[in-house]
Design a protein that fits this description.
Largest sheet: 7 strands, parallel
Order of helices and strands: EHEHEHEHEHEEHEHHEHHEHEHEHEHHH
Structural class: alpha/beta
Helix content: 40-55%
Number of domains: 2
CATH class of the largest domain: Alpha Beta
Shape: globular
CATH topology of the largest domain: Rossmann fold
Number of strands: 13
Strand content: 5-15%
Radius of gyration: 21 Å
Distance between the termini: 12 Å
């Protein structure tokens, strides 16, 4: 039984695949199970999927940007080359099924699968599917979606499962969190997530009001790897009162162990509007304040965030309204209303679909048994 995973080359695509791989291995114990990844070279798929026993094979993939860039001309050439590479990989591997997580990195593999008549299952995270997912939907046997009212796809192909979440990130503990983050535990704890790359505008806003924030809250701040050194240095210069420094915990990236413990102990999460983050927050049952990325393709983060907020689980601040002291006052207001935070937690839990990965894994295996 050979299954090939493919996706767009970001953490947002890789983490759901990791969740599904783990569930497949829990359900199916046969010695003939072989799992592969075929897509563009990136650190997330190479590291995270290899750790799960998935054999990673890389091909070229072209990304078509929605703005003028000289890179578009080079990437157009990568697409047919990537399809040719994928064709030969699939021909010799002879997989039973392709699972696509969408994104530009998945298109060469799905196009080659179409030529070779390999069945394709597709999952799209966002309420507005990207260009690659739209094209792949024509060939997919089943389309799994995260949001009930996902746009564009034909209803007869859709199965709404939610976004696959790694079950392990729901198993943190307050005791462990106190050890790894050196938490004081004397103030409400706010977890700030900027996605795997960090969020420049959010980082700058946090730094502008950092002393005032720390006077009221303890902060775990995922800054992004690229900006971590700069944010940490600026924070050290800004926090002049030594008594406040112990309440600020910046990190470049939260690996699985750090994320599960941060989610277990935080009182509120500040995040972008990516579907991966939203469904992880929901599964943890945490209230949240979402700041969607305004430049996301087809404005999908904004639509994700507002769809989630309608469940009563989050408040949304659009980046055009993101003024430092307005943000601070919103936090203070929320924590002055424990009843509201409680309702937001209930909304998160009702929205959550923690068994999404298990459901998708079951669909894949049932299909292959036929």
């Amino acid at each position: 039984m050979k299954i090939i995973f493919t996706g767009g080359g970001t953490a947002g695509h890789t983490f759901p695949m990791v969740a599904i791989v783990r569930e497949i291995k829990k359900i199916y114990k046969g010695p003939d199970l072989k799992l592969f990844y075929l897509g563009p070279k990136d650190k997330y798929s190479l590291t995270l999927l290899t750790e799960e026993g998935v054999i990673v094979k890389t091909i070229l993939a072209g990304k078509l940007r929605r703005y003028f860039s000289l890179k578009n001309f080079l990437d157009i050439l990568k697409i047919p080359l990537g399809i040719l590479q994928a064709f030969f990989q699939l021909f010799f591997l002879a997989p039973d099924l392709i699972f696509s997580k969408g994104g530009y990195g998945s298109f060469p593999t799905v196009a080659a699968a179409r030529i070779l008549h390999v069945p394709v299952f597709l999952h799209t995270s966002d309420i507005v599917p990207g260009l690659a997912a739209r094209m792949e939907s024509k060939y997919a046997l089943e389309i799994f979606t995260s949001f009930e009212k996902t746009e564009f796809f034909p209803k007869e192909k859709i199965i709404c499962t939610g976004n696959p979440v790694r079950q392990e990130i729901l198993k943190g503990s307050l005791e462990e969190a106190r050890k790894i983050f050196w938490l004081e535990g004397k103030k409400p704890l706010v977890l700030i997530l900027g996605g795997s790359q960090g969020a420049k505008n959010i980082n700058e806003m946090i730094l502008e009001i950092l002393p005032e924030l720390l006077a009221n809250f303890e902060i775990i701040h995922q800054t992004g790897s690229r900006t971590f050194a700069q944010v940490r240095a600026e924070a050290a210069a800004i926090i002049r009162e030594k008594g406040l420094r112990k309440y600020y915990h910046p990190l470049p990236f939260l690996n699985e162990n750090y994320l599960k413990n941060a989610l277990s102990c935080c009182d509120l999460v500040v995040s972008r509007g990516g579907a991966g983050g939203i469904f992880e927050i929901a599964a943890a049952g945490k209230p949240s304040l979402l700041i969607p990325l305004p430049t996301s393709a087809q404005n999908h983060q904004m639509k994700n965030a507002y769809a989630y907020s309608r469940a009563g689980a989050a408040e949304v601040i659009e980046e055009k309204n993101l003024k430092p002291h307005f943000f601070l006052e919103r936090l203070k207001h929320l924590f002055s209303r424990p009843d509201l935070l409680g309702k937001m937690s209930e909304g998160a839990e009702s929205f959550a679909r923690p068994k999404a990965a298990q459901i998708i894994a079951s669909y894949i295996l049932e299909y292959l048994k036929q």
